[in-house]
Amino acid sequence: VTDYLDEVLALKASAKTARDDSDWQEAISDLQEAIDLLRSQTPEAPRPLPSQLASELSDTYGLIGGIHKRWGLNLDGEDRRRHLKESVDAYDEGFWFEQVLPPNDANTYNRVNRLVGRVLLDPAVLDKGSGTIADDLQEAENILTEEIRSVRQKDPWAYCDLGTVRLLRGESNALSAFRQLDRLRPPTFVYDSALTTLEPLSEVASGLRPELPQAVNLLQRLRRYSE
Amino acid sequence: MSGLDHERIALIVAKSADNGRSQEVVGTGYFLTGNLVLTARHIAERPGCAFSVRAEPGGSEKSRWSDAVSCWEGVGDVDAMLLRTTRQFGDWEMPILRGDIDEGEWESAGYARAAANEKEESRKTLPLRGSFGTSLGQGFAELALQTEQNIAPNWEAYWKGVSGAPVFARPPGAQGMIGIITEANRALSNCLIGLPTSRLLDDIRFRSIIRPSFLGSLPSAPWCLVLTPENSASDLVGQAGDVLKDPRLRGLHRDPIEIPVLEAVRSVENWAATLDALARADYVIADVTAFEPAVMMLLGIRSVLRRGVTVSVTADELTAHSSAVPFNVQETRVLSLTDEESFYEDLPRALAEGAANLARDSNYLDLPAYHAVRSPRPETWAEDDAKTMLVLCPFSEDYSDFYRRKLRPIIRLHTANGGMKLLRMLDLKSPRLVGQALYEQLRWSSWCVVDWTGWRPNVFFELGVRLACSERDPLSIIQRGNARHSVGVSGTPPNGLHQSDLLMQLFNPVEYDRMRPRDALKGPLEAWPEPPARTNGRASKQQVLPSSATFEVAQASFWWERDPILTLPHVEQRQAAESIFGKDPEKHPEPLILFAGNDQFNAELDAAARERWIAAWLYLRHLCSADNAAEGIQAELGRVSLLVIYALTSSSDPRHVTLRKEIRQFLRSERARRAPQESEGAGD
User: Which of A10, A11, A156 sits opposite B589 (nearest CB)?
Assistant: First the structure.
């Protein structure tokens, strides 16, 4: 078990380095190799999947989703749309594994970003009523509120996700989630990642959700202080 | 069969290479069982010997030979060795080994050179017989063997090859194997010297090998040992079996292995097998109901031997249990069997959580002592050790009064160094926590007296710790009239415990009269550190544990492969780096280190983690520079290279920037080096 997980860890590190160098193709290639390795373990694995395996699959798909998103946001037109669509597909795949994670591995990265991706593709979805992503956002907020009260009270990503979900729902208390995040004194890359999510959202959906630019400003300020 | 069986005489050939020249030494052995041969150790005096053994039974000459490996060698001047043959010859029972016959008639047979046909290079056995006595005096006793056969003067080399031949007593006296021949007397051509069987029986590992373990063969997969007490009405083994089916314990051997405590202390061999099992068991569930002394002692031994998962259970309500729990196991977690429903929830969880914690936390402990007995020798040891003695004893008011007035002065007066300072647990002056200081003393004190009086559970836990971690056995004593344990938390057994008798037999404590303790204690104290006479009328010599036996078994059995001191530098450095920010900091950015929110501290943690990664990489690089670097190490270097590059990403330190470039260059050259090999492989 240790061997393949260690290999996956190294491939993810390599992908993150490539991602930080904007070498999207190289990053995706590393992550696909990690997925192949993880997938090769699943036929032999007991059901439900061991949490380590499910957690890595969920995380690796999430990373692929994040890289396609960044890649797409650097492009225009059909290329942009294609990468954003691939991003949503990867998040959906990761979400499938994420839902079954036990409490000590609880995560909402894919749950939230699959919705963010849909908004980036079509901001108008925010205006549609029940039966659309509104229900998913409501459910995500409920889950995050409960997790922050319990197992994820010190997890910076939980506060980022909660702030994002509340912003997309147009709630007035969204910024407080980011202030709570700041109290945890997270590493700088957490602010960077949150900004990578919110800045493009702000560009496409600030008309529908006016708090988005405020949130971006707040996070930029908090990030500066954290350095 | 207790007489010499000529069919079992074995010819031993030990081959070795010396500067490219093949050397061959011939000796004699005796099949104790169908594949276990006893011989003299000096046959294999050169390192790296390969053994061939010829058995008498069989068809063709070729079918009578087998390769063999050494499975036991005597320590010090015990010139004996056990070889295990790869082939099984005969269905032989263990001969009776006699360590109690001092003189009489003997017989043997061996492959002495005198009986060899050197022209035809064939060996024959030379039957031997005569009378024997025991040589005493300085050093250990030897067998003096007079032979009816004479080797001509100046031809003593013609005894060669007889080494290792068995010596059997023969009628009209008692029968049985009394030793092996080890050398020829150079002054007397008809006199041989033998190693008495009693010296072999003093070695607990020898005894463990020649008798099959009462536990049978232990599982190779991770497994769970269940230690059950003498007085138990529960079905702990059945319940443990149910629990082991829990999915959280996947991969474990399905059936628990039970060790009933009475069996563990029934004989020297069972004791050794139990210790070996305690060292090997990945999980131990110990029923500590009523804190039976042998159970506590075995827990003490486990706490020294293995940083594994150990869960204590009790048939008592936890409130009743807690009120009587000995201080040294107060911090251990105990589950109650009284509420079956919660027990079935709690036990698998305790086992699974313990295993998970053990895997990721090098400080994980569920019993005390493991780390404390491995602490360095105290600075003042050389100065203090000769002047102080550790005393493990009860602390009741009555006993304390007796100790101060009578026992302490006697011990002080009659021990070798006279006037030693006696230290009970409460007297320890170390600044360390009391428990830590006690275990440190248990390991390092040369002088330790254990008074079994009262059969106190804490005393037996500490005795177990001492026996396992010190090659110097303590002097065990007990007040006469206390030979039967009768202390319990609840439901005190009306007739005491049978294990008391077995423990008395196994450890042979010196019994003293409370009114006249000096009478019994003076002799053993003055002779100490020589152990007291082996028999006290309760047990035969073979029923008493040999000196240092527990330590010997502990030393041979403990899982040294996992000792942290052997952790390779790159693993150690990587673990240290990962302990700071976790294995995947981006996935889990929660701070793991206490007070990491302190900005200055956090910055230094960041730097420390990077430096650890660099150290891991450099050491791996060094390992891989060897021509014969293992494939696994090269793969590890590849993985660590990627992790180090990532760890250094956010650093602008020129040293880090340069190293990142260097590692990238290294990875490129590795890929280039492998590419042709892989394409060649693909073409095959």
Answer: A156
Interface test with A, best of B581, B598, B642 (most A CBs within 10 A): B642
Q: Flag whether pLDDT at B486 surpasses 70.
A: no
Choose, out of B250, B349, B586, the residue to mutate when testing the contact with A (most A CBs < 10 Å): B586
Instruction: Answer for the pair A38, A8: CB distance below 8 angstroms, yes or no.
Output: yes
* CA–CA dist B172, A150 (Å, integer): 84
Determine the pLDDT at residue B434. 76
Q: What residues does B108 pair with on adjacent strands?
A: B128
List of residues 6+ apart from B123 with CB closer than 8 A: B11, B26, B111, B115, B116, B117, B161
- What is the per-residue pLDDT for B99? 85
Name the residue of chain B whose CA is nearest to A184's CA: B597
Residues of A (116-155) whose Cβ lies below 8 Å from B: 154-155
Residue B481 — very low, low, confident or very high, per pLDDT cuts 50/70/90?
confident
Contact B460, B293 (CB under 8 A): yes
pLDDT on residue B550: 96
- pLDDT higher than 50, residue B266: yes
pLDDT tens, position by position, B230-263 = 988 889 999 999 999 988 888 899 999 999 999 9
The chain-wide mean pLDDT, for chain B, equals 88
Question: Which of A24-33, B488-497, B596-605, B626-635 has the highest average model confidence (pLDDT)?
Answer: A24-33
Of A14, A20, A185, the CB nearest to B642: A14
Q: Which residues contact B612 (CB under 8 A, 6 or more apart)?
A: B573, B574, B576, B577, B580
Tell whether B630 lies on the interface with A, counting CB pairs under 8 A.
Answer: no
Interface check A157 vs B, CB under 8 A: yes
Q: How far apart are CA B354 and CA B309, in angstroms?
A: 6
Q: B298: closest CA among B264, B332, B268? A: B264
The answer to whether B171 faces chain A, any CB pair under 8 Å, is no
Q: Nearest CA to B258 among B211, B214, B291?
A: B214
CB-based contact B64:B180 (threshold 8 Å): no
- pLDDT at position A44, please? 75
Q: Rounded to an integer, what distance in angstroms lies between the CA atom of residue B180 and that of residue B32?
A: 12
pTM of the model: 0.82
Pick among A12, A55, A63 to test the B interface (most B CBs inside 10 A):
A12
Residue-wise pLDDT tens digits, B177-207: 999 999 877 666 688 899 999 999 989 989 9
Give the C-alpha separation, B105 to B256, whole Å: 50
Closest CA to B380 of B434, B418, B437, B424: B437
B353 touches chain A (CB under 8 A): no
CA distances from B489 to A122, B194, B265, B314, B499 (A): 72, 53, 22, 11, 17
